[in-house]
Design goal:
Strand content: 15-25%
Helix content: 40-55%
Largest sheet: 7 strands, parallel
Number of helices: 7
Structural class: alpha/beta
Low-confidence stretches: none
Shape: globular
Order of helices and strands: EHEEHEHEHEEHHEHE
Distance between the termini: 41 Å
Bound molecules: NADPH dihydro-nicotinamide-adenine-dinucleotide phosphate
């Protein structure tokens, strides 16, 4: 096991990423957040478009100057929806570029640093939509299924370097983006009937799981997708 080094989190400026950054920080980790705005609730924050391979390499090199990197959380993501028959190809590309390709590019940028540290952990943010058929969500579902597949490949290919990879796949999580929608009585009633736990998840709950994966040993756990959805995805 490598000494605990810095953990790089993409999309740490708000939503689930900000909760992950806060929880990792509270657990004593040195956290660096990458986002276009360069904001973060705590820790170090750098402005970086994570869909740009060069920008990623530059950011990782700068972070490595401060010490070893032993964790990478690929959280930045985008949700665009619309009827498949008229969904714009440009929108499809935008979703796949950030949700899937940027995960690949981020893992690639992290790899030499994790390897140099003697190993490390990659955690990706997928979605329980990765195994569901969801109307008007073809691009998003495809992007999240791709992430789960990438994690299986990373786990197998980089195990010999001491690098493990786990995909965390949340269900509905209340964030600033969907708070108003989730507060609508009709939506709330539908969610309560569909989610056996009876409510949407909280960003902090995703942060807790990511922190556990980064803090705990759990090194035999790799290549898997963990669903964090209150059992909605397995509900008949
Ligand atoms: P938000 O839209 O609230 O946050 C997205 C984050 O990504 C922001 O910090 C944003 O920062 C950053 N980001 C967007 N584009 C880029 C880019 N090109 N380069 C760098 N950073 C970027 O999303 P959520 O917190 O809701 O979602 C986080 C992850 O969790 C996503 O992968 C999402 O698919 C997944 N997820 C979310 C669920 C939910 O219910 N909310 C459910 C299941 C999965 P900035 O604008 O500053 O760049």
């Amino acid at each position: 096991m490598p000494e605990a080094g810095q953990i790089v989190v993409t999309g740490g400026s708000r939503g689930i990423g900000a909760a992950i950054v806060s929880q990792l920080h509270d657990a004593g980790h040195a956290v660096v957040s990458l986002s276009r705005s360069g904001q973060a609730p705590v820790g170090t924050a750098l402005a970086c478009d994570v869909s740009d391979a060069k920008a990623l390499a530059t950011a990782f090199a700068e972070i490595a100057e401060a010490g070893p990197i032993t964790g990478f959380v690929a959280n930045a993501g985008l949700h665009l929806k619309g009827p498949t028959k008229s969904f714009a190809a440009a929108d499809y590309d935008q979703v796949l570029d950030l949700n899937a390709k940027a995960v690949f590019l981020g893992a690639q940028a992290a790899y030499p640093h994790l390897k140099a540290a003697g190993g490390g952990r990659i955690v990706t943010l997928g979605s329980f939509f990765d195994r569901l058929g969801v109307p008007q969500n073809l691009a998003y579902c495809a992007s999240k299924a791709a992430v789960a597949a990438m994690v299986r490949c990373l786990a197998v290919e980089w195990a010999a370097d001491g690098i493990t990879a786990v995909n965390v796949a949340p269900g509905y999580i209340e964030t600033d983006l969907n708070k108003d929608w989730l507060a609508k009585p009709k939506v709330r009633a539908w969610l309560e009937s569909r989610i056996p736990v009876g409510r949407a998840g909280r960003a902090e709950e995703v942060g807790e799981l990511v922190t556990l994966l980064m803090t705990g040993e759990l090194r035999f756990l790799t290549g898997e997708t963990i669903y964090l959805d209150g059992a909605q995805g397995v509900n008949h």
